[in-house]
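note to self — DONT lose this again. spent like an hour looking for the file last time. sequence + predicted structure for the chain T wanted, 129 res
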Amino acid sequence: MMSTNAAATRDAAPVQLPFIVSDVAALTANPDLIPWRRFREGVEIHQLYGSGDAGASAALLRYAPGASVPQHVHRGHEHIFVLAGSQSDERGHHRAGTLVVNTPGTRHSVSSAEGCIVLAIWEQPVVFI
């Protein structure tokens, strides 16, 4: 399913590139194969590249049912691809298969009633407000 050994170790730093997921359905069906770490209450992260502190970065985020991320502003483009479950923000309810692109200067909060896994790609880190 994944071409790196990062999924095998729980204490892994960002994965080594290239990071290839050959079967997204299998990934979302077996999310415990990924070495998650706490991001916020109810939300876990698996950093793919970048530190999340400066510059571009990408990560998988896993929301527990009922979890949310508070309002934040985008300093650069943010791409969110919903892989499993669904999430909602002020612009609507986004189910698996949805691609959301947030432009610089936009702000929103995100919640997931049922839980979800998303691929997030940030041009710049967001700022929580």
